[in-house]
Amino acid sequence: MTMGCYGGHGEEGLPANGKERGAKRIIMVEITPTMPNLGRFIITPTYGMLAVASVLAERSKYNVTLLYDRYIGKILPEDVVAMEPFVVMANGLTSAAPDLEAFFSRFHELTGGKIPVVAGGEHATMYPEEARKYADYLLLYEGDETVFPLLEALEEPDLSKRDSMFSRVPGLCYRDLTGAWRCNPDVPRVDRINYRYNFEIMPGAKDAGKRFRAARIPLQTSRGCKYSCSFCSWISLYGKPGYRVRPPEDVVHDAVHASEHMGINDFFMCDNLFAGDEDHVEEVMHQMAVAFEGKKKPSITCLMRADQLSGGPNSLSEKRVAQLARGGVSIVSFGLESISERSLIQMRKQMTLEKYIAASEMLRRHGIAMLGTFASGFDGDTVDDVRGIADFAEKMSLFTVQVYARCITPGTTDMIMSEHRIIPGHPNKYKNGHGVWIMPALMLPSQLQETMFEVALKFHSRIRSRKPAHLIFSRILTQLQPNIRALKRIENEILLPMRIYNPVKQEYRMDEDRLLQIYDNKDHLHRYRTMCKRIFTEEVDGASAMQQDQTYSIAAGSPGGGA
């Protein structure tokens, strides 16, 4: 099925959100990255697109249609052009950047650049210089409110007035009258998170839960966090610190609407810090329990810190954890990151392994399952530490583990302290959490890459119910082979000969001073970057074509058997 069969209208053949047929149309496009990652095996649109699309549908004069390729099949630029949009909007993770570049290159070719493309979301906010390759405008940070003055400016026919209006939109990157890119320094701040999902603007959303076994919907109860882990990019994405909550009735509306319209009762909380306001989350869970009383109970996955559940001074009480379970929380995803105390200190996690164990015991008492995510490759992580994740996960009774590579991203403490650790020229499509693109201190990059998957495959091979996740990790590893080959060539041709890494007994240690010496010499740095980029190009871009988009029906890591 392709999205062309929907013709840009709602599933009953009516305009997407009940506006007059003559109203201008906004098309929002969400494209799944070609390169597989764990998120690819779960059918879920991103909450940012849902939020902005729903806000526009409710509060603007435009007909709004949100196209999600997992619901309607491959989206073609020709189909979007045929819908005659006033503007097209897109977001996406960095791993989707190559797909977006290809899509909008063709789109601009078809339209002659006459239909503006606006990009927002994580990639546009963190890497605006790259998002400019496919977008005419970038709306950074939160777009719930700034999208309105941007659209007003796009309506202005007078170019001088339009340019002036652009200059006053917070967080907007645009070309001025000379064609030069400008980015407005003001950071928007949404003090009242004011939206309710409208799934009627999404072709293919009706009864999606019946068609897709792995269908999920993201819910949001808050934005921001009260912590500042060194690797976390949440401040970069929102532009300002702070923790804000949504009205509980709006959260419950989204869940009920998804259940009734889509037949989906599986949700995940996409908060940076779920339950950061204890009274608020208690009210959310109470209203959720009331709303679904006598109906199919929702199954909610949420991301939490272990010290919220470890029994310490900042921990939720047993009563409140019981309320989470009554409200539908069935899985807690712990951002455990490492079993190395040194690494936990480096990343400013403010956590101990003892707290991890205590938190797991709290959840077991209330029948809540657990999964754990790890960010491997910090300076305290040895190969044995990474391998030890599998046994530690068993000790915590996790039903799945997700071992990711350390990422060093703009705006984080890690970027300030360790930008030189990023391997130059690494392709965006592998920046999906699974691909290694930094240099760890106590092992070679390729060792980190292979050990991460050694752990995942070992853990998920032990019990039959974990086999679906084992299959998924195997598929991801297969797709990462060009990256692994490139890393090994960079090690053998650059890092080892230049003694950036040196053998110590049967292990390798990075000599950071040697690496910094390269960065202190412009000629050496240029040569180093050129060599790394060439190797990635030869191994990745020159590799045989990846298998085309495949639709997998297996959901990673569901208790009791996964899919």
What is the topology?
Layout: E1 25-30, H1 47-59, E2 63-68, H2 69-72, H3 77-82, E3 87-90, H4 97-111, E4 117-120, H5 122-126, H6 128-131, E5 137-139, H7 147-155, H8 159-166, E6 172-175, E7 181-183, H9 208-211, E8 217-219, E9 222-225, H10 234-238, E10 242-245, H11 248-262, E11 266-269, H12 278-291, E12 299-304, H13 318-327, E13 329-337, H14 341-346, H15 353-365, E14 369-376, H16 383-387, H17 389-395, E15 400-405, H18 413-418, H19 445-460, H20 467-479, H21 481-495, E16 501-504, E17 507-510, H22 512-519, H23 522-541
Parallel strand pairs: 1-2, 1-3, 3-4, 4-5, 8-11, 11-12, 12-13, 13-14, 14-15
Antiparallel strand pairs: 5-6, 6-7, 9-10, 16-17
CATH topology of the largest domain: pyruvate-formate lyase- activating enzyme
**What do we call the CATH homologous superfamily of the largest domain?**
tm_1862 like domain
Do you know the CATH architecture of the largest domain? Answer: Alpha-Beta Horseshoe
* Uncertain residue ranges: 4-16, 544-563
Number of strands: 17
The number of helical runs is 23
What's the CATH first level of the largest domain?
Alpha Beta
Query: Helicity level, as a percent range?
Result: 25-40%
Please give the alpha-carbon distance between the first and last residues.
Answer: 23 Å
Major sheet strand order: 2-1-3-4-5-6-7
